[in-house]
Design a protein that fits this description.
By secondary structure, the chain is an alpha/beta fold. 29% of the residues lie in helices and 19% in strands. The protein has one domain (2-165): Collagenase (Catalytic Domain) (3-Layer(aba) Sandwich). The protein has five helices and eight strands. The structure holds zinc ion (ZN) (2 copies). One zinc ion binds next to α3.
Length: 170
């Protein structure tokens, strides 16, 4: 199994490296791609934000078992004001945005990015949102939610992931 990390725009290298380290919980070969430009036509001038769909389409074109886009810009998907990320349920492509996750403490910044990435990858493994607020699959509507939840799947989410894709239990 191969997981591509595809940065879009100016994503700090230390944040991508920390993300790759956090994703080593999965039994996948991780490849970090060079940053590419923000997809053309993804910018919504009325909203001043970028369409998450456009990043998903770009990720879906890459050849790997999973493709995780990491966008430097703020993304949205109707009807939400913004999204921290988006993914195809049971699909290959996922994208997160780091635009709202920054923190002066790099470790904290990195943790937020890892949580949203592990969450979106969970969707590609077929998971939906979890009612356990500490589970990484609980929905984040704000940074507070992101900071409150953990980096791990709860036991019932873990059990719902196909065995071949399941991360190691602690
Ligand atoms: Zn979600
Ligand atoms: Zn859960």
């Amino acid at each position: 199994m191969r997981l591509l990390i595809q940065p879009f725009g100016n994503v700090p290298v230390d944040i991508i490296d920390a993300l790759a380290a956090s994703l080593s919980i999965f039994d996948m070969e991780i490849e970090i791609r060079n940053s590419i430009s923000i997809p053309r036509d993804s910018y919504d001038t009325r909203r001043g934000q970028y369409r998450a769909d456009a990043f998903m389409e770009a990720c879906a074109q890459a050849d790997a078992d999973r493709v995780l886009g990491v966008a430097a810009v703020d993304i949205f998907a109707e009807p939400l004001k913004f999204v921290f990320g988006q993914a195809e349920i049971g699909g290959r492509a996922a994208v997160i945005s780091i635009a709202r996750l920054a923190h002066r403490d790099r470790a904290k910044f990195g943790q937020r990015v890892a949580k949203e990435a592990i969450h979106e990858l969970g969707h590609t493994f077929g998971l939906t949102h979890c009612s356990d607020p500490k589970c990484v699959m609980s929905f984040s509507n704000s940074l507070e939610d992101t900071d409150h939840k953990g980096m791990r799947y709860c036991d019932s989410c873990l059990d719902a992931i196909p065995t071949a894709l399941r991360p190691r239990r602690r």
